[in-house]
Amino acid sequence: xxxxxxxEIILGKPLDPLKSETRHSMALVAFLAWVGLGADGLSSxxxxxxxxxxxxxxxxxLGLYMAIATAVTVFIIALAYNQVIELFPTGGxxxxxxxxxxxxxxxxxxxxxxxxxxxxxxxxxIASGVDALASFLPLGFQPYKLWAETFFIGLLIVMNLRGxxxxxxxxxxxxxxFVATHLVLIVYGIFAHASHLPALIPGxxxxxxxxxxxxxxxxxxxxxxAYSQGGGTYTGLxxxxxxxxxxxxPRVRTGKVTMIYMxxxxxxxxxxxxxxxxxxxxxxxxxxxxxxxxxxxxIASMGLGGEMVNQMLLVVVLAxxxxxxxxxxxxxxxxxxxxxxxMAADSWVPHKFRYLSTRLVTQxxxxxxGVAALAILWWTGGSVTLLVVLYSISVFLxxxxxxxxxxxxxxxxxxxGTQWKRRWLLSALGFVICAGIxxxxxxxxxxxxxxxxxxxxxxxxxxxFYIRKHYRATKQAIHSVDEVFASQxxxxxxxxxxxxxxxxxxxxxxxxxxxxxxxxLLWVQRMFxxxxxxxxxxxxxxxxxxAYGGEGALxxxxxxxxxxxxxxxxxxxxxxxxxxSYLGFGTDAVEEVTRLCEEISHEFPHAIFFTSKLIxxxxxxxxxxxxxxxxxxxxxxxxxxGLQMVILPMKV
Length: 652
Hints:
The chain is about 70% helix and about 5% strand. By secondary structure, the protein is mainly alpha-helical. It has 2 domains: about 5-470, Amino acid/polyamine transporter I (Up-down Bundle), CATH 1.20.1740.10; about 490-650, Rossmann fold, CATH 3.40.50.620.
C-alpha cells in the first residue's frame, strides 16, 4: 500500500481550500467553539477551586469571598477580551493586541508566553487526566503513567491532523457529560443546603471582623489574595480571541456569543464548587481531591441507592472530569498553532508554521505543540504541581500585557460620550487584577518553579529575535536584487505573441520576487542565445493559514499573483518574445508546481524548466530550517517524471 493511501486512511482525503463550501463546513459555530476552546477553562474547575480553597488554610469562611471574586474575575477578563475580538476580528488575540497596541517586542513576549501556555495546556490536562484515571486502577499502574500520557498526546495529534472540527465532534460527548453531571451536583448541592445560606453571609462577615481584630485588615486582604493561587481557573479565556479566524461568520458575533458561554459556564462551575465546599464543610481526605470528597457526600445524600450505586455514580462523575481534561488538552492543539502562524507572519518563527496540510490544518504547529508537551511531561515527570505553577504565570503574563494594550488603545482613542470611558475602566480594572495576580504568583511561587517560566520565555524570545534578524537580512538582500532588475527597460512591442507548442520552450517557476524571475530569464537568454522561442511563467501559490482564514485574503492573493505573472508576460511581449503564464493554488507548493509542469509538458513537449534558489554564504541546519527546499524537491519530482529542470543559484 502506498504512503499516500495510508495517509488518506489515517488523516482523511485532501480538501480543496478554494471551495467556499470547504471553509463553511470547517468553521466553528458558537456551540462547537465553546466545546473546543472553552474546555480548557472549564476543566480547570477540577483543580483551580481546590487550590484557592486550600490556600485559605483554617480560615475557610473566607471561601465565600473567593467564590464571588472568582466569578467576578472571570466576567471582567471575558468582557475585556470581547474588545480584543472586536478590534482584531481575524484572530491573533493576546499576541496581536500586544504587537499592535504596545509594540512588536512586547508582542514577542506575549507570543512566547502564549505558546508556552498552550504547550502547558496540553501537558497539564493530559497529566491531570491520567492521574484521575490512575486513581481507579491498581497502584501497579503508576510507573506507566508517562507512557499513557504519551499515548494520549499521540492520539490527539492524529485527531487534530484529521481536522479541527472532527476532533471537537469526537470529544463532544465527554464535554456534554461533564457539563450535565456537574450542573446537577452543583444545583442540588446548593438547594439541598439552602437553609444554610441565610446564615452564611452574616456568619462570614462576623468571622472576618473577628479575624481582622487579630491580624488587622491588611492581613485579611493578604489572605483574600489567596484566590490568585487558583489562577489556573481563568485559563482558556483568551483562546477565542486567538482563534477568531476559525469561527463561523459573522465571526465577531460568534466570538462574543462563545465568550458568553465560556464565562457563564466557568463562573458557575468554579464559583459553585467553592460554594459547595462551604455549604458541605469540605475537609481534605488523604488520596482524594476536594471535588471527589465533596461530590461523594452530595451523591450519598441524594438517596439514589446503596453504597455500590453511589460509588458507581461518583466514578461516572470523576470519569467525566478526567475526560474533560483530555478535551481541554485539545485546546492547545487549536490555539498553539494559531499563535505560531501569526508569529510566522511577522517572521518571529519559521515561515513554514503558516503552511496548511491537505486537511487544511497547520500541521507543523500541531506536531511542534505535541512534541513540546511530551518533552515537558517527561522533564517534569508529569508533576501537576510544577506544571500548574508554570501554567498560571504564563497565562497571567499574557492577560496583563493584553489588557495593558487595551488601556493604551482607549487612552489614545478618546471619543465623546462615555463609551470609551467604560471600556477604559473595564480594561484598567482587568489589568490591575491580572497584574496583581501575576505579581503574587511570581513572589509566592518563584522558588517553586516560577523562575523556570521566566527562563523558558526569555530563551524562546531570544531565539525568535535571532530568526527575525535572519529573515530581515534575507529580505533586504532580495530587495536589493529586485532593485537591480527593476531598471530593466521594456521594449517597444505591444502586441501579444502566442507560444508555438512545436518550438523550444523555457518554463520559469517564479514567486513573488520580480527580480528573481528576471534574473532567471536573462540568465537563460545569455547562456542559450536564440535557442528558446517560447517563454512560459508558472506561479504556484501556497494557500496558508492567513490566506485561508482571512476575509478576502484569497482574492487578494489571486490578484497579486496574476499581476506578477502579467508583468513577466508583458516584459517578454515588449521584446518580441512569445510568452504565456500559468497560475495554481494549493497547500503544497511542490505538489502544485509538479502538477502544473506536467500539464505544460503535455502541451509543450520541448520544454525545459528553470527556477531560482537562494544560496547563502554559510548553508547549515538553521538556514534549511528557515527556508523551504521547494526548488530541490520540485526538481527531484520532475526528474522522476522524466522532465528536465535546472536550478539557477541566486546568492544573497
